Amino acid sequence: MRTDEFDFDLPEYLIAQHPPEQRGASRLLYAHEGVLEDCHFADLMRLVRPDDVLVLNDTRVIRARLFGEKESGGKVEVLVERVLSDHEVLAQVRASHAPQAGSRLLLAGTLSVKVLGREGEFFRLRFPVDEHVLELLERHGQLPLPPYITHSANDEDEHRYQTVFAREAGAVAAPTAGLHFDDVMLQALRDKGLRIAYVTLHVGAGTFRPVRTDHIEEHTMHSERYAIPQATVEAIAQTRSAGGRVIAAGTTSLRALESAAAGGELVAGESETNIFIVPGYRFKAVDVLLTNFHLPRSTLLMLVCAFGGMSEMLAGYCHAVEKKYRFFSYGDAMLIERKP
Fold first, then answer.
1. How far apart are CA 144 and CA 137, in angstroms?
2. What are the strands of the beta sheet with 195-201, ordered from one edge?
3. Residue 142 pairs with which residues in a beta bridge?
4. Closest by alpha carbon to 100, among 77, 125, 81, 80?
5. Domain annotation covers residue 315
6. Would residue 146 count as lying in a domain?
7. For 146, how many CA atoms within 13 A lie in the half-sphere containing its CB?
8. Strand, coil or helix: 128
9. Which of 23, 67, 223, 241 lies in disulfide reach of 274, CB 3.0 to 4.6 Å?
10. What is the number of domains present in the chain?
11. Are 127 and 253 members of one domain?
12. Domain that holds residue 136
């Protein structure tokens, strides 16, 4: 398939720069059986069923962005992509000239970080060993907002660009479908009879990368770490036995579940995934997808088209633009029933 088949015109003013005043105050476009229904996020309460299971990604966004300078004095910007160990990370490094292996970076005016070498597009960096790197990032780093958000992270972002159930530190981007939920709504869903289950997928910066090849099969997918607890496998099995549906909150939850079910049966454990879901993919684990609206020509839009039908989802995006839905991380949501 050609990449330009997944393009669409998006007015810049529809890119949400700030979250709604309250969690859950967003709109919701419900796509089912070829029908598009304009709703509010609170309507999710009537659209789910008592025997369903809602799967949330409990990853926590780390303060992954740091600014500093090279030994030569040149300015650098570091965006941690992945924490590898207590003291080492893989990171994007922006500088006028790429730093050399063995050199040092002075970050946040105080952290002397050694460049160990290059691994593809990333650099392997070693942070000071007197503290865990996550503690150093928490104290000296900045929240890494997506590239389409034009302001620097502020106090509002520190609170709202994090889900209320975030607990496993490691992501450099939020699982944005989860941003809509507050504790009150999660409890109301439990009271209705839904099971709530969790996966962990540490979202990487590659989630924002557009597909630049002419044909989608030429694209190299980024890799991310995920974990599926045994409790989640059991909750999904119980849901299936009761005739309920598996609802993935976000493409990250869906990618984790589908990766763990690649052999035909969902299994618990930790692994890496570079799963690239495009039209023609046969879903094994997820029945309903709750997701925000995604970038043109992105792997996530391709995933959505695979799930809900290509013509149906592209029509849904045209409808969303016409009805002035808010797009991307701080934007509105879409609830999609899988096309048979």
1. 11
2. 35-40, 27-32, 333-337, 288-292, 246-249, 53-57, 195-201, 224-228, 269-273
3. 65
4. 125
5. yes
6. no
7. 24
8. coil
9. 223
10. 2
11. no
12. 65-140
Residue ending a domain, choose from 140, 165, 196: 140
Residue 90 confidence (pLDDT) above 90: yes
> Closest by alpha carbon to 305, among 339, 332, 258?
339
The answer to whether residues 119 and 222 belong to one domain is: no
Instruction: Using the predicted structure, report yes or no on whether residue 208 has a pLDDT greater than 90.
Output: no
Q: Please say if the pLDDT value at position 209 is more than 90.
A: no
Q: Is 300 exposed, middle or buried (0-12, 13-18, 19+ CB in 10 A)?
A: buried
What CATH number should be reported for the domain holding residue 175? 3.40.1780.10
**Does one domain contain both 256 and 312?**
yes
String of DSSP letters for 51-66: T-EEEEE-EEE---EE
152 belongs to a structural domain: no
**Mean residue pLDDT across the chain:** 96
Q: What is the DSSP string of 238-300?
A: HHHHTT--EEEESHHHHHHHHHHTTTSS---EEEEE-----TT---SS-SEEEEE---TTBHH
- Strands (DSSP E) along the chain, which ranges? 27-32, 35-40, 53-57, 59-61, 65-70, 75-83, 88-95, 104-107, 111-119, 122-126, 168-171, 195-201, 224-228, 246-249, 269-273, 288-292, 333-337
Looking at residue 4, what is its pLDDT? 95
Q: Residues 180-202: pLDDT tens digits?
A: 999 999 999 999 999 999 999 99
Query: Dihedral of CA 262/246/53/162: which sign?
Result: positive
Residue 177 has pLDDT above 90, yes or no: yes
Number of neighbouring beta carbons within 10 Å of residue 220: 11
For the residues 223-251, what does the mean pLDDT come to?
97
User: What pTM value is reported for the model?
Assistant: 0.95
How far does Cα 58 stand from its chain's mean position?
A: 11
Identity at 24, one-letter amino acid code: G
